[in-house]
Design brief:
76% helix; mainly alpha; 309 residues
Length: 309
């Protein structure tokens, strides 16, 4: 069992840590909302068909509604915006800014009526995390398009992180399908449909040129479907049921580091000293938040949030 747990955990580290670079490659020649919508619709159909054939219980109408809302928040507001932002910001920096999701979750959860107020370690972690984000925002090495990075890229990634945090907090306090994988399939289907509608509203269908889509973009899209959406989520769902939650939650620290390494190695993204310092600050803030006594108490009652890739 220990070997299986670590195999699944390493699969999550690699699959989700590398998806940020795959997104960057995919949106080079495929409009971002169309790319993300295609990714999640295909994965949703395959995953839902598998779970129904495996005998998973059909969710109630209320559970369908909850899963759809969570899917729209996470995959349209979260992943869809990340895909759009990676037209302007390199993948490693996108991963580091998205790593701030636990920070936003603390803030959002603290605003709920009757919720526990954050202790000093959580507050310190939030402040430190924002310092790391501010350091990243001023880095010109983070830009694919320097003129548009500060105006579009960084604000979009912060917005995506907030959407993901809202969706994660909401999922903890609503009636979701009993099968984790069925729930994920419904979320991905809702997200895929929402992203296609967003593609219509933004005119992406009119600018799509199939003949100009490169092999690299197509291979990246396939990688996102198979490894990011299917293998990654299946391994993660299995870990939630079979591994200690503190161990599972380590993806929040490891994925940004994997993204930095993969982006530098395969994506020729410059790994500056400023970026490394910001990475240490942000990852350190997340560790501080996740290891506070308050967070450990809540972890006994709640499921870990899904990642934003």
């Amino acid at each position: 069992m220990k070997a299986k747990i670590w195999t699944a955990l390493i699969a999550v580290y690699i699959a989700w840590g590398s998806t940020y670079l795959a997104i960057r490659f995919a949106v080079e020649t495929i409009p971002p909302f169309l790319m993300a919508g295609t990714r999640f619709l295909i994965a949703a159909i395959l995953l839902y068909a598998w779970r129904r054939s495996a005998g998973d219980q059909n969710p109630t109408p209320r559970q369908w509604r909850s899963a759809i809302i969570v899917g729209l928040l996470l995959l349209v507001g979260g992943n869809g915006i990340v895909s759009w932002a990676e037209q302007y910001v390199v993948s490693s920096i996108a991963a580091l800014i998205v790593a701030s999701v636990p920070i936003w979750m603390v803030i959002i959860d603290a605003l709920r009526p009757g919720s526990l107020k954050p202790d000093w370690r959580v507050i310190l972690g939030v402040l430190i995390g924002f310092g790391g984000i501010a350091l990243l925002a001023g880095s010109t090495h983070a830009a694919i398009n320097p003129d548009r990075m500060a105006v579009y890229g960084v604000p979009a990634l912060l917005g995506a992180s907030i959407f993901w945090a809202f969706g994660s907090v909401f999922s903890h306090h609503t009636d979701m399908p009993t099968s984790t994988l069925t729930s994920i399939a419904i979320q991905m289907f809702a997200g895929g449909v929402g992203l296609y509608l967003l593609a219509i509203l933004t005119g992406e269908w009119t600018i799509l040129k199939i003949s100009e889509i490169t092999t690299r973009s197509l291979v990246s899209l396939g990688y996102l479907i198979v490894f990011g959406a299917l293998i990654g989520f299946v391994c993660y769902a299995w870990l939630l049921r079979n591994a200690p939650l503190p161990l599972v939650s380590t993806y929040a620290y490891v994925n940004p580091v994997i993204a930095l390494i993969v982006g530098s190695w395969l994506g020729a993204e410059l790994l500056s000293l400023r970026t490394v310092i910001a990475a240490v600050i942000i990852v350190g803030s997340v560790i501080l938040i996740n290891t506070s006594s308050q967070t450990r108490v809540k972890d006994k009652e709640e499921t870990a949030a899904l990642p934003a890739d």
